[in-house]
């Protein structure tokens, strides 16, 4: 074990070094996860000031104790932003008051009920045919690109836009986003990507103002949505306008914007990243790929294994409300934690031979990739449905699809909380 820690974070034993933003860590984080779990399960990272919590049992206990481990810091920027970047955000009135993921107040439960209703099991099941139709429509474009160029990027043609369209439909925002609204799917994706990098990345100072301007444009566009929110309107906007907090007050404009901002990012980025990661791994395994479309239940079970082993949302934050002990480490009040969800899915104390993808393994759904407890992801059923329908449909229609480049040559996004390929180039197998 790595020795006792003091409240200021000094370690009395050996200290593993992890650079959470390095290309090596992004490409292959599992050795670092194992090292942390084994030698320093609660590790102070001097580069970010965060306490890295990597063992399944510790992370689970933290998530299930929202009084001592608060969610207030979940949407804070990881790095201090430059003044020009902050000016862009301030000019748009950018602010994210507590609403969903970052809300530890008594106003959380009501808002959560509201979005959970839109993402209920029956609504998700009813959306499955739409996902299949959209997958086929995107595959038409994939096949056209393959015919014309011999290669095609599945991120640009399939995984980026599909979850967007599904989520906008479920939230009743389809008519508000698209051609003629100033926010087609490409623009929304650019805004999303900029927001992720600005808040969860380590962008150089020179890059920050450009990212902040895009996040500010996103916020301004959402302000237009908030202004159209009125009770009786179908979907998310109508529900938000009609909602009352426990003290009887309606949501403020900033709160409506903040809910929409989070839902659009949560609903598109994570799910698109999940699909890109799954397609990349599945296509790499040429024996598995054609089976995903034909064997009943395989796509569902294999997708669950991928969620455990290689989730898109790799880590999430909490902050201690009072002095507390995790394992053998004493932490002061106000200590920011990074709960390493991706590490917990490969904790050998819970998952036997964690590196192996074994569809249907014991405790297959016990991973923490969607969180657990009061803030557990209400979009989990939607994400799971999209994973199995997309894998099954693409495999069935394109059983001879292959990766056109070795895994190591495709770029990966590596942010504090998000990890996924940004390109999945494919070709058809000639043989
Ligand atoms: C593979 C895809 C996804 C993953 C891995 C994922 C993961 C997560 C995680 C880890 C949390 C935080 C849990 C916690 O703090 O305890 C979360 C929260 C949340 N997610 Fe997801 N998510 C995904 C897709 C979605 C989708 C599709 C939606 C909606 C359309 C969504 C909406 C939300 C919301 C609203 C919250 C905040 C819930 C609350 O604070 O009560 N997510 N998600």
TrEMBL record:
PROSITE patterns linked to this entry: CYTOCHROME_P450
GO molecular function, one term: iron ion binding
Keyword Iron recorded: yes
Statement: the UniProt record of this protein carries the keyword Glycoprotein: no
Keywords: Heme, Iron, Metal-binding, Monooxygenase, Oxidoreductase
Domain of life according to the entry: Bacteria
Family under the similarity heading: Belongs to the cytochrome P450 family.
Protein name: Cytochrome P450
Source species of the chain: Streptomyces albireticuli
């Amino acid at each position: 074990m790595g020795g006792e820690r003091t409240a200021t974070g000094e370690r009395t034993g050996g200290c593993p070094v992890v650079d959470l933003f390095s290309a090596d860590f992004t490409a292959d984080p599992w050795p670092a996860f194992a090292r942390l779990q084994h030698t320093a399960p609660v590790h102070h990272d001097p580069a970010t000031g965060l306490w890295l919590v990597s063992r399944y049992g510790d992370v689970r206990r933290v998530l299930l104790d929202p009084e001592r481990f608060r969610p207030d810091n979940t949407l804070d920027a990881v790095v201090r932003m430059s003044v020009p970047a902050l000016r862009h955000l301030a000019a748009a009135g950018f602010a994210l008051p507590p609403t969903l993921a970052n809300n530890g107040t008594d106003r959380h439960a009501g808002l959560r009920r509201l979005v959970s209703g839109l993402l209920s099991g029956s609504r998700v099941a009813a959306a499955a045919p739409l996902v299949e139709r959209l997958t086929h429509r995107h595959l038409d474009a994939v096949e056209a690109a393959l015919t014309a160029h011999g290669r095609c990027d599945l991120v640009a043609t399939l995984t980026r836009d599909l979850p967007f369209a599904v989520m906008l439909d479920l939230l009743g925002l389809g008519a508000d986003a698209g051609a003629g609204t100033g926010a087609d799917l490409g623009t929304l994706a650019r805004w999303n990507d900029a927001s992720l990098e600005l808040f969860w990345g380590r962008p150089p100072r020179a890059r920050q103002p450009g990212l902040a301007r895009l996040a500010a444009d996103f916020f301004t566009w959402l302000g237009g949505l908030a202004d159209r929110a009125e009770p009786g309107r179908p979907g998310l906007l109508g529900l938000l306008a009609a909602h009352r907090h426990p003290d009887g007050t309606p949501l403020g404009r900033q709160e409506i914007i903040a809910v929409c901002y989070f839902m659009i990012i949560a609903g598109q980025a994570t799910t698109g990243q999940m699909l890109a990661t799954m397609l990349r791994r599945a296509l790499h395994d040429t024996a598995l790929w054609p089976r995903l479309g034909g064997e009943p239940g395989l796509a569902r079970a294999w997708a669950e294994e991928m969620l455990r082993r290689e989730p898109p949302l790799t880590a999430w934050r909490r902050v201690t409300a009072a002095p507390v002990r995790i394992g053998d480490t004493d932490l002061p009040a106000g200590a920011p934690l990074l709960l390493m969800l991706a590490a917990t899915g490969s904790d050998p104390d819970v998952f036997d031979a964690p590196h192996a993808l074994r569809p249907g393994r014991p405790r297959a759904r016990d991973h923490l990739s969607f969180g657990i407890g009061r803030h557990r992801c209400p979009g989990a059923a939607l994400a799971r449905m999209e994973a199995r329908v997309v894998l099954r449909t693409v495999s069935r229609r394109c059983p001879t699809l292959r990766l056109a480049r070795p895994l190591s040559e495709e770029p990966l996004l590596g942010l504090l909380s998000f990890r996924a390929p940004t390109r999945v180039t494919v070709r058809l197998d000639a043989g």
